[in-house]
Structures are given as C-alpha cells and as structure tokens.
Amino acid sequence: MKYFITGGAGFIGSNLVDRLLSDGHEVVVYDNFRTGMPEFLEDAKRNYRHLKIITGDILDQKLSNSMAGCDFVFHLAANADVRHGVDDTHVDLRINTVGTHEVLEAMRVNGIKKIAFSSTGSVYGESPIIPTPEDAPFPIQTSLYGASKVAGEALIQAYCEGFGMQAWIFRFVSILGERYSHGHVFDFYKQLSQHSKYLDVLGDGTQRKSYLNVKDCVDALIIAINNSTNKVNIFNLGTNEYVQVNDSIKILCDYLTINPKINYSGGNKGWIGDNPFILLNCNKIRSLGWKPKYTIKESIIHTIEYLEENSWILDER
Amino acid sequence: MKYFITGGAGFIGSNLVDRLLSDGHEVVVYDNFRTGMPEFLEDAKRNYRHLKIITGDILDQKLSNSMAGCDFVFHLAANADVRHGVDDTHVDLRINTVGTHEVLEAMRVNGIKKIAFSSTGSVYGESPIIPTPEDAPFPIQTSLYGASKVAGEALIQAYCEGFGMQAWIFRFVSILGERYSHGHVFDFYKQLSQHSKYLDVLGDGTQRKSYLNVKDCVDALIIAINNSTNKVNIFNLGTNEYVQVNDSIKILCDYLTINPKINYSGGNKGWIGDNPFILLNCNKIRSLGWKPKYTIKESIIHTIEYLEENSWILDER
Predict the structure, then answer these.
(1) Cβ-defined contact of A141 to B158 (cutoff 8 Å)
(2) Model-level pTM?
(3) Lower CB count within 10 Å: N or C terminus of chain B?
(4) What domain count does chain A have?
C-alpha cells in the first residue's frame, strides 16, 4: 500500500510514518513544516527507501498532484492549538475545515477512496455522558477548534456518501510520548526547565483529562483501518483512566525532584472552551482487540524522558 | 428591537420580515437577490417605514458596516439546494459555512450578541431514532448541505462560548406556503403546468417527509427567541405528521383534477444524500406553547393556491 500522510512530519504523523515504513509500506509525507519537524523524519529517511517527503501546505495547489498514485490518505495536518481560536477566528476554519475539503477534493480528483482523519474528543463539548461514547447526544461545540473538527468530520462523511469513499475518523484524547512538542505537559516542563521555583498553571488544576501514548495511538489507527469496514468508521481513542492537571504536575515534579510554588490562574477551565472533564468510552476500539500498553503515569514519564534527551525541541517552541 | 435579516428577501425570510414589521420592530433586510425576490418585499415596503433593504452578499465586505446598530441577527441566507452538493462541492461550504463565519465576525465587530440560525433536519443524516429529537445520537452526515449546516451550527455555538453570544438554532423540516419557490411540490406543480399528462419523480415515491407551513414556522421562531434563554437554544421545527411523496402527488393531482402518468427514477432516495424518512420530535418547541395551525395537506393546498395566483414565480425558476 502507498500511504499519503498530511502532517507526516508532526508528532503523531511521524510516529505513524515510522510504523507504516517498518510494516513494509510506501509512504508519501506532505507537510508544510510549520509545526512539523524535519528531525522527526531523520531515522525514517536513513532507514527506508520507500519514503518521499514533500514540503507543501494542504491549501496549496500542489496538493492534488502530490497525491497522485497513492492508495490511502491519513489526513493529520491541522491547527492543533486548541487554546487560541478566539484570538484569530479564521485559523481553525481555514486549516481544519477548508483544508479538509481540499484534501477530499484532491482525493476525488485522484480517485483515492480511503481516508483516515484525526479528529478530537473536543467535538463532544461538555458531554452529559462520561465516559463519552461515539454515539453520545448531538453535542454543542465550545471551541472553534472543536467546531472546525466536527465540520471536517461532516465533510468527510458527506464525501463518503456522495463519492463512494470510506473513512476512519478518530476522536483522540491528548496524546503523549516520543516527539511530543505541544500541550500542557510540554508547557510545564519547559517552564520548569527555565525556573524550577514556580509554575504558572491555567485554571485551578482540577481539570480532569485522559491521555494516550503515541505508540498506543498508532497501534489503534492501524488496527482500526485493517479491521473495520463500514462506510464511515468512528472511533474514540484514549485510556480508561484520567488524571487531574494537579496529578500531572505532581508526577512531573516528583520525577524532577523539585517542589515549585504553583500559581493558578483560577477557574475550572484553563482557557475559553477548555473542557473540565474529558474521558472517552473506548469500548468500540477495544472490541477490535486493541488496548493501551501504557498508563497515563508511564506516558507522562516517557514524555519527560524524551524531552530531557531532546532539549532542542524546547528552543523551537 | 432592530433586526438584521440575512436572506430577508427569501421564502422564509420575507415572511419573517412581514411578521417583525407588523409586531412594530425595525428591520434591515440583507439579501443578494440571487434566490430572494424583490416582489416578496413589496407589501412590506408599501406598508412600513421601518424597513431598510440592502442588496449584498454575506461574503461581501459591506456586510459588517450594514449590520451596524442592529440588536439581533436572523441568519437565513443560505444555499438551500440540498440536491446539487455533489455537482459543485464548494458551494455549500462557501455559502453556508464560511458565510456563517462572516456573519458571526460581523456581529463580533459590531458588538451584536444574539443570533437565530436556520439549520435543517438534514443534519441528523439517517437517524436511528424517529421521530428524531434535538439530542439524537451524534449524527453521520449524508449530504454536503447537511455537513455545511452542522458546521454553521458548530461555529455559532463556539462563538457563544468564546464571545458571550446567545443563539437560537432551528432545525427545519421542508417548509411550504406563501412565497414557496423551490422544492418538490414546486417542481411537481411546475411540471404539471407545462404538461398535465405525465410527471417525472425522483426516487420511487415512497420517501416519507414532514412539512411545516411557513406561517407556523415564523410563529415558532418568534415564540422561541422570546421564551428560551439558554446560551445555545436548539429547536426542531416540524409537524407531528409525515406524508409519502406519493401522497403529496395525490393531493396535488386531486386538487388540479388531473391524472398524469408517474415516471419514477427509482430507488428509495431522490438524490444522493436524500433521507428516505424525515420526522422530527418537536416536543421542545411545543413545550413553549407553540403548535402548528396547518396540516400538511392544508399546507400543500395553500402552496398550490399561492402558485396559481403567482404564476410569475414559475418563470423565474
């Protein structure tokens, strides 16, 4: 199989690239390297011949030609910054919604029928049902990021019906692990590497979040696309655990053997549209035989170890 | 109150304009007159001083200045053609999704905090629950039209959270009545006015649809915005009845006392993404004291009478 991976130089994308190459597939990475990093593809470039890397944006005209000859598209390119939607209200719409439409159009022109899409648990807004299953009540969006992703999902579903495509849509919790380079564990680690005496925390630290290791995430993607055959296949991806932000901080500080003063910004939300409790019901993906190998605590420590060994990332962000 | 009505020269829009003016409000109509018709506003222009009509597209820069000084936006402008999404996949996204974002941005710039939005029962796709309530399971979209509307809803919800706005979102069944000028009763009547011996019908005629009279629709809009006060208020609007397409044809032919040969295109869907059974659970809007005054049969006959008296509409479409 020849896979086309938008955002293939990103955190999740590059881990997926490594896995697909090691499974013997051909891979075309398409990335604008705005948040993706060439370093994440260095091992893959060194070890595999069947890797092609194209620098391009999903909104560029070259997208369509770049996709020619591929069998399957993993559309992972996105604005993944959940917090800043209200600062520039065009960004999520342009990159995540219009960008997804451009990817679908390029697939249609090239006759490519299969797409996997990285959506988000944020599409559930503040669900009345926790853990939240895929068929939760029709949600109300609380962030422009969530809105842009639900719009991307909807476009993909309409293309499946209209043009005989097949889709796998994944609603992720936050992902941790190797090459992790944005999000709150990253922010906390970066702060503490600059000043170990205090830590600024958005919200009151009680927000409850679930996390998944990137290796477990990639395993789930592969198992899902190989074992589910509906027209539209939607999967939550996460662990059955959650931790408070305060728990993450404690794990981080214990590992670093420091005891900073915590300055909370206050309120039960870190930012507008922050969801105070995210926990997804992942029975559907588990029914295919998948389960996570790493606990949240292991994933946080795994992440810190990676950041310690790769401190250059801290300078990039 | 000063209301700004995008699509105010359209079928539903112009009926709403008449109602708001007769209730004593100021109204600004904003319409590009692509499907809206100046004739629909003639009575209003003749009878009321507090009506301003601006010719403009929601994607034009002038939108924002046009909205200055208004208190409440009814955003009804849309591509309402459900059938042709797959012929040009950009239309629904541009007009209904990006257009809604432009309306929200104009509101934000002008400090306008209240919006009512015409969504559609199509956002439920092929719901497993019929009659379908507002909190039905998270749907899978089957048309680009439905996808563009669910994206519009999501953007509005995110603006409510992000910018302290308040929204009323209405998921309509098909609307019939005075000034009705597109949809299948219109198409059937137009065909039969040209040739009374035969009628071409998309699908096999068994599609089950619910309809609502435009006067009942406008009543519901006014009752909802005056009696529900959540941040985001979502209402299905329809009757508790449904008819088969074949029933609509019989009502029409009996009224016209003709007996045409029916040529079915076949299949249980009229077009890609057509939903074979639409019936909405409208208990929520009924709990506010609203109920429809007209049966579906009365609305169909009402519509035919209007078209007979206004045959110029047939030439326009």
Answers:
(1) yes
(2) 0.96
(3) C
(4) 2
